[in-house]
Amino acid sequence: MANIKDEAKRILPQIVEWRRHIHAHPELGLETPETEAYIVKALEGMGFPSSSIKKGIGGHGVAAVLQGDIPGQTLAIRADLDALPIKEETGLSFAATNGNMHACAHDAHTAMALGAAKVLINHRRELKGSVKFIFQPAEETVIGAKAMIDDGVLENPKVNALIALHTGLLWKDFSVGQIGYSRGGMMASADRFLITLKGKGGHGATPHLTVDPISMAGQLICRLQTILSREINPVDPAVLTIGRIAGGSAYNIIPGECILEGTVRVLDVATRKMVEERIRELTVSTAESMGGEAMVEYTPGPPPVINNEAMTNKLIASAALLLGNDNVREIPEPSMGAEDVAYFLEQVPGTFFFHVGSNPDKGQTYPHHNSRFDIDEETLWIGSAIFAHFALNWQ
């Protein structure tokens, strides 16, 4: 264990170099060819044979397999690599200048996974089975994980378990360098709905000659919120947010159509299904009761992030050996934000953990997706060490 910790600390300058290069060259969505090429070059430079690296998975994703000398199963270490369409305002010497920004720490995630690869390649004799490093594009648009899965990234060799992390300041009351874990539900699903209410337009002075879709929208908004307040167990976390309402073109004209658009976030799979069904039922019944019609487009996003308890317990053990028990803490409550690592965790048992990488003492208080978001590079060895130690001890 001491070896792994020391080795990860020793290569910190290299991890930082990887992070800074990726940070300075952010790419979006599935179109990440430069980042893909950089990762492949880094892996080959540390000794991965070209035959063990596959690129172009689900767009520009990369998978690299490290085979151990001892028979065993395959662990995947997943890191996301895409950025956001945000103009950077950090003032860093390696700040991006192309109008995009790594404002969600995916540059750090990729660098820490590369650090783990560099450590583990020197421990193949002790490694049971294999480790598949998965570098995923399009997390921000929550389509990259599914694209890679559909492209076969969990096969050849078949992945038996998976581990991943997110760094920054996602949860309060943690100190920089600590690790947060969650047994079970950690982050929510993220679905989108688009409701079109159709009526009959007319003049505002003669409402009796119209079928008012804006009135329908007002009634429907109240009814939809009763799904949460009256149909779901109060201790079952759920969010239904309507973020956009559009209808009408003049103050004195009743339009023929009104649109509502929103999102549903839940932690329970059964609750997720029930909420979708009730949105459809209440929308249609509300419109019809007022003489109108309705259409509902419901688009499922990533499912909830649900950690496997046994894998999480193994993570806790690894992290505690490296950092001490006091620095490995349970996350007090789940986030209603989403992460498409959930698609991987639907397929294989695994755990997604929180790496506290932003340091308020260094002015790193800005949240994710902010143009001034930054992380403390001194913490990057921690993610690499935990990944490597876990890979050597999970089976």
Would you mind describing this structure in some detail?
The protein is α/β, with parallel strands linked by helices. The protein has 2 domains: 2-187 and 304-393, 3-Layer(aba) Sandwich (Aminopeptidase); 191-299, 2-Layer Sandwich (Alpha-Beta Plaits). Helix content is 34%, strand content 25%. It has 10 helices and 16 strands. It has helices at 2-10, 12-24, 33-45, 106-120, 144-150, 213-231, 269-289, 309-323, 341-347, 380-393; strands at 53-57, 61-67, 70-80, 128-136, 161-168, 179-181, 184-187, 191-198, 202-203, 238-247, 253-254, 257-266, 293-299, 305-307, 328-330, 350-356. The strands form 4 sheets. The chain has an 8-stranded mixed β-sheet with strand order 1-2-4-3-5-16-6-15, sandwiched between helices. The chain has a 4-stranded antiparallel β-sheet with strand order 10-12-8-13, covered by helices on one side. It is elongated and about 80 Å long. The model has no long low-confidence stretch (mean pLDDT 97).
Roughly how many Å is the radius of gyration? 24 Å
Low-pLDDT windows of residues: none
Question: Per CATH, which architecture of the largest domain?
Answer: 3-Layer(aba) Sandwich
Q: Please give the largest β-sheet.
A: 8 strands, mixed
The share of residues in extended strands comes to 25-35%
Distance between the termini: 15 Å
Number of strands: 16
Keywords: Hydrolase, Manganese, Metal-binding
InterPro entries: Amidohydrolase, Bact_exopeptidase_dim_dom, Peptidase_M20, Peptidase_M20_dimer
Binding site for Mn(2+): 104, 106, 140, 166, 369
GO molecular function: aminoacylase activity; metal ion binding
